[in-house]
Amino acid sequence: MKRFFQTIKNIFSIEDLRVRILNTMGFLIIFRLGSYIVLPGIDPAALTGAPQEGILALLNTFLGGSFSRASIFALGIMPYISASIIVQLLTVAVPYFQKMQKEGDSGRKRLNQITRVLTILITGFQSYGYIRGTIPNEAIINPGFFFYFSAIAILIGGTMFCMWLGERITDKGIGNGISMLIMIGIVSRFPGSIIDEAVNNRGLSGGIIFVIELLALFAVVMGVILITQATRRIPIQYAKQVVGNKLYGGKRDFIPLKLNSAGVMPIIFAQALMFIPALVGGIWRDSEAGAYIGSTFSDFTSWQYNVVFGLLILLFTFFYTAITINSNDIADNLKRNGGFVPGVKPGKQTSEFIDTVLSRITLPGAIFLVIIAVMPAFAVIAGVGQNFAQFFGGTSLLILVGVVLDTLQQIESYLLMRHYEGMMKSGRVKGRSQFAAA
């Protein structure tokens, strides 16, 4: 306990780190306050409350309850994530966007502008589906063109403001701001979910079941941490060089390739796309096809939903790994610094070797990611309450573990940079961002 308080003291004794932590807390408080501001023209008393089942309940968990409250942040950061997915796909498939990506800062600025414009378009489409498909008609005080126009405009403004908050957290705070906003929404729902689960499991048998659920949750958390931290180390040997009368180099090192190099981003990307069919089904709920799509993809325990969800996770895991880890750059850096993989020629063969190893470990990592992502559906089928089951694995748990590890790694980096002891006595805290550094 003494070491814990000493670590807290060391953290707040570093001015830059203290300012970043306070900035992050301030931005997150603003985000949470905005989730309680109801859209103008809607009677809060007439709202039916949080969706109790299906994909809408999962979305409500990600947004910290703002979805069910019809707040100005009802769509949160999800449209921006969808726009980012589309732009990243275009940078892989379309030569014009590939060229733009390689233009440095100017190209990135243009891509960011395109992402923002696309975010506005996607938010406008999803806002109409949200108002038409999820808000009860009796909750709208004066339905009409002006209400729909103003509500859509406010929802677009709310999403853009959330995007701005995420960017400010990244620049002025700690860690990935977008993931941080999603995490705080999830954390805000956890205490109520675990209390509801405890209340629902009354009596001796219910208490035993609740304890078993907690133990299972602990085991799942440990499994997620192991998968997040697992690495495949590629050994590196640096050639010896004679400079003057001294011999330099000759040291051994390794390239740590993570089993899940993409982190939580494939889950976030796939989940953002899985919200679209439910919203589309809400818009055309009067038609037979719309009703089928809405009912099927609003139930995250249906096999259709889980099959599509799993395939999207597999796709985005390989895609995100490919765009974040460039085997050619790693091989070039090794060759330039006099390093080589024992038994492999420098240059092209080293790049091919790294790419082969990366492909082999990415597939099992993606499969583990899919298994964890669909576990809440099996938990619900096994009898766990839906609100608590969403923390039983799946997107919520992966985001929590990933963001917490990244944040702790950022804080530990500041501590070690200022010559303080790290946060862990047994070793360094490793975030998701530590990969493929040659």
From TrEMBL:
Its main location: membrane. It comes from the Bacteria. The chain crosses the membrane at residues 21-39, 72-94, 114-133, 145-166, 178-195, 207-227, 262-284, 304-326, 361-382, 388-408. InterPro entries: SecY, SecY/SEC61-alpha, SecY_CS, SecY_dom_sf. Keywords: Cell membrane, Membrane, Protein transport, Translocation, Transmembrane, Transmembrane helix, Transport. Gene3D superfamilies: SecY subunit domain. It is found in: Cell membrane; Membrane. NCBIfam families: 3a0501s007 (TIGR00967). Component of the Sec protein translocase complex. Heterotrimer consisting of SecY, SecE and SecG subunits. The heterotrimers can form oligomers, although 1 heterotrimer is thought to be able to translocate proteins. Interacts with the ribosome. Interacts with SecDF, and other proteins may be involved. Interacts with SecA. Belongs to the SecY/SEC61-alpha family. This is Protein translocase subunit SecY. It comes from Chryseotalea sanaruensis.
